[in-house]
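Anyone up for a design puzzle?
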């Protein structure tokens, strides 16, 4: 049956409410068969992209359908996308024309900017530019206004009927809206029952922007794609086997996939499920002969867990904790915000019942969540954690973060505004709670024990960043550091064991995290040797300070790129005037302010260069120009901006003395 429900785009263009996705489909036979099946089934909304490398195949299929008279051009809605290496004002038209040539069309119905950032373009390969390590090379800061003007020109030229965005956040959309002559008609983002992105959808609907959901079924085949490109597989939400969805599917005599698709359609979102199996292609379009009732919608809305759906696995935690207890761990660290207290509680209950361990044998730590940092809510969340853990008490209860988020009683989580930004409490009443300090020596002097999280610098943290769609970080690799490895060899231990033992000998309790049974066992075998004074001295010398911080809390939306001092034109101009380098100018500026500068470099030439700053003086004009470069908190490297708007909080920045 043909889908007869539409979303109306600005200007009155109708977009079928269900599309056919073609991501990761570039096998000619496979795409041809599945697309023919889709068109036969009644799909009239086809989604592709230049980077999918299947536009030519799709173009050939469409040409055959047009020639046969079974389909007219105006009967079908075609979307394609500007590739990441086309996100530059000089390349928009070029790639628009390339896509039209591939598709054998005069126009597309919707042309999207695929990503809100640009990759450098390699003309020799026609693809993205990479360095000698195979790493993608990025353009500078994206000029969204300039890109959008070029997108508007594609509408003016008749190459695209409408234009839109893909994978943009609210802030980036707002930037485009401010200068847009033709407003974005559509936003395409990942949306499914586990990742509902309510604030983003509401924002789009309020601004007249239609929404298309890619990955509407949680992409059951995504790990095959990761494997194909040589990337590690990921823990992804399994929509098709979820018991709540299964129950609703049974009620309506539908499949779980059909329920997930129908849920999005009833939210006013156009899903574009991808399948190369003709039976599923047909099944996915049969979602217009039933309606989910209010009870169904409520249950499905309650499945929203956002990004956490991709990091939490009950079986994994159960296995890891059992292995840890078998290995002899007796100190378990968790938090209400980790959303695993119930799983831990179930494991502990089994161990207590078996008689293998008594409550008094274990040391359990949990933490007051950020939305519990208020005098009226401490007891409430303490009791919630005890209920989850199935315990009468915990051995240590910590305040997770030294500022409070407003509490949403309807969801039981932190309150967010219409933009999806977290809402902060006012100034934290430290007297009513308890003031925290972070310095180890201060804590020890005051009788406060210290626990170290990320004691191995979190080797898996970049996986978390990738899962959240964030840029990975260059972090010091403790496990492959030559000094750590040398000491490990000396003691016949692993680098991880050396890192943990170092903390223990400093009087710090370490809480390493691993879900690998072998490593869980390995991490506890650190009490049968002692690091000598020489070992400790060498390990202390590895301290590189904030550069090595894993948890810098700059993980949510917002511009995180820092100003580049060494490339700044003002600094460069002054450097040229004094026949110095930009680095020397930056250092001299601090020295003339009465500040001792401590630059770090491992390059002998730069080490020498950095000290040659006492043979010249910056004049008043130089100093004035350099002072004008101050952009405040935006330039802070370690600014703890985990949450949008934290800089407005009265207790921020809480790391300052």
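Challenge accepted. My sequence:
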């Amino acid at each position: 049956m043909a889908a007869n429900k539409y979303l109306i785009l600005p200007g009155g263009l109708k977009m079928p409410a269900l599309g056919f996705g073609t991501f990761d489909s570039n096998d000619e036979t496979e795409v041809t068969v599945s697309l023919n099946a889709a068109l036969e089934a009644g799909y009239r909304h086809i989604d592709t992209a230049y980077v999918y490398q299947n536009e030519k195949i799709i173009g050939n299929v469409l040409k055959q359908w047009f020639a046969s008279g079974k389909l007219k051009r105006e009967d079908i809605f075609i979307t394609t996308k500007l590739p990441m290496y086309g996100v530059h004002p000089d390349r928009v038209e070029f790639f628009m024309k390339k896509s039209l040539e591939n598709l054998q069309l005069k126009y597309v119905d919707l042309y999207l900017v695929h990503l809100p950032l640009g990759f450098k373009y390699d003309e020799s390969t026609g693809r993205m530019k990479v360095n000698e390590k195979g790493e993608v090379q990025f353009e500078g800061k994206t000029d969204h206004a300039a890109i959008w003007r070029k997108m508007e020109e594609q509408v003016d030229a008749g190459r695209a009927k409408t234009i839109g965005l893909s994978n943009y956040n609210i802030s980036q959309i707002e930037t485009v809206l401010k200068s847009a002559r033709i407003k974005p008609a559509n936003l395409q983002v990942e949306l499914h029952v586990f990742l509902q992105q309510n604030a983003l959808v509401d924002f789009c609907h309020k601004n007249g922007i239609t929404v298309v959901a890619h990955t509407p079924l949680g992409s059951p085949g995504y790990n095959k794609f990761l494997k194909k490109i040589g990337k590690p597989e990921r823990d992804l939400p399994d929509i098709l086997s979820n018991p709540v969805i299964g129950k609703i599917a049974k009620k309506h005599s539908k499949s779980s996939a059909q329920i997930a698709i129908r849920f999005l359609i009833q939210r006013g979102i156009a899903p574009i499920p991808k399948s190369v199996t003709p039976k599923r292609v047909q099944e996915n379009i049969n979602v217009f002969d039933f309606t989910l009732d209010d009870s169904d919608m409520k249950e499905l809305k309650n499945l929203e867990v956002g990004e956490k759906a991709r990091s939490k696995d009950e079986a994994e935690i159960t296995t890891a904790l059992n292995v840890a207890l078998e290995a002899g761990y007796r100190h378990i660290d968790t938090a209400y915000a980790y959303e695993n207290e119930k799983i831990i509680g179930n494991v502990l209950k089994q161990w207590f019942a078996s008689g293998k361990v008594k409550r008094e044998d274990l040391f359990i730590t949990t933490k007051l969540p950020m939305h519990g940092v208020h005098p009226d809510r401490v007891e409430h969340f303490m009791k919630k954690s005890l209920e989850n853990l199935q315990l009468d008490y915990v051995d240590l209860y910590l305040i997770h973060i030294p500022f409070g988020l407003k509490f949403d009683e309807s969801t039981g989580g932190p309150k967010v505004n219409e933009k999806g930004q977290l809402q902060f409490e006012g100034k934290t009443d430290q007297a009513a709670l308890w003031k925290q300090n972070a310095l180890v020596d201060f804590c020890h002097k005051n009788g406060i024990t210290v626990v170290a999280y990320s004691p191995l610098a979190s080797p898996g943290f970049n996986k978390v960043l990738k899962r959240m769609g964030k840029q990975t970080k260059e972090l010091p690799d403790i496990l492959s550091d030559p000094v750590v490895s040398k000491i490990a060899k000396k003691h016949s231990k692993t680098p991880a064991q050396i890192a943990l033992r170092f903390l223990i000998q400093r009087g710090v309790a370490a809480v390493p995290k691993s879900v690998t049974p072998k490593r869980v066992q390995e991490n506890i075998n650190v009490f049968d040797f002692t690091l000598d004074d020489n070992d400790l001295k060498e390990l202390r010398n590895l301290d590189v300070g904030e550069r090595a911080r894993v948890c810098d809390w700059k993980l949510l939306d917002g511009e995180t790129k820092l100003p580049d001092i060494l490339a700044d034109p003002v600094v460069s101009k002054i450097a040229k005037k004094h026949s110095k380098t930009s680095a020397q100018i930056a250092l001299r500026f601090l020295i003339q302010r009465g500040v001792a500068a401590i630059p770090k470099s491992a390059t002998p030439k730069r080490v020498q260069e950095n000290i040659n700053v006492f043979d010249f003086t910056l004049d008043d004009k130089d100093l004035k120009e350099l002072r004008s470069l101050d952009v405040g908190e935006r330039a802070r490297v370690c600014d703890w901006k985990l949450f949008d708007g934290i800089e407005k909080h009265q207790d921020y920045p809480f790391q300052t003395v």
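A detail worth pointing out: Residues 311-436 form a domain with the TIM Barrel fold (CATH 3.20.20.100).
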